[in-house]
Write a structure and sequence with these properties.
The chain is mainly beta. The chain has 2 helices and 9 strands; from the N terminus they run αββββββαβββ. The strands form 2 sheets. Strands 2-1-7-8-9-6-3 form a 7-stranded antiparallel β-sheet. Strands 4-5 form a two-stranded antiparallel ribbon.
Length: 144
């Protein structure tokens, strides 16, 4: 792929289930994907009555995606997975640990995750709008 095509194609997001036995590429990634990387902290009051902040560890990363799945092939999207397959992937794998891989010029993310919310609805044109929230999953056995 040429660098010009890579720049104009934007971000790509992939989900995999069951150790890459099933992989789904998100058909359309909007320009505004929300990334959250919280920092744990605790507030406490000292003997003078002043509030102090004690910074802790980084919390679990989160990604929220509000987009749509196509109900038909759109030439400008190229070859993509249609809405029924996408919805099926997320509903079947909702309780599993998934892997998300995000690639763009400015963001690289490869992490285990759990779906925390998946809502969708049919639009007038037949496409499916959806909101997907995932949270980083830390394997207690140390596998990444």
């Amino acid at each position: 792929m040429s660098i010009a095509k890579y720049i104009t194609s934007g971000m790509e997001i992939y989900f995999s289930a069951d150790n890459n036995k099933e992989i789904l590429r998100i058909p359309y990634v909007p320009p505004d994907v929300d990334f959250s990387s919280p920092l744990e902290f605790e507030l406490f009051e000292n003997h003078k009555g002043e509030l102090l902040t004690l910074s802790g560890e980084e919390g679990l990363r989160q990604v929220t995606l509000d987009s749509w799945f196509p109900s038909k092939f759109y030439q400008w999207l190229g070859s993509v997975t249609l809405a029924p397959t996408c919805i099926d992937f997320f509903t079947r794998n909702r309780t599993k640990t998934l892997r998300i891989v995000i690639v763009s010029l400015s963001i690289r993310l490869n992490m285990l995750c759990k779906i925390t919310d998946f809502t969708y609805r049919k639009k007038n044109n037949g496409d499916i709008s959806y909101s997907l929230s995932i949270q980083e999953y830390i394997d207690p056995h140390g596998k990444r």
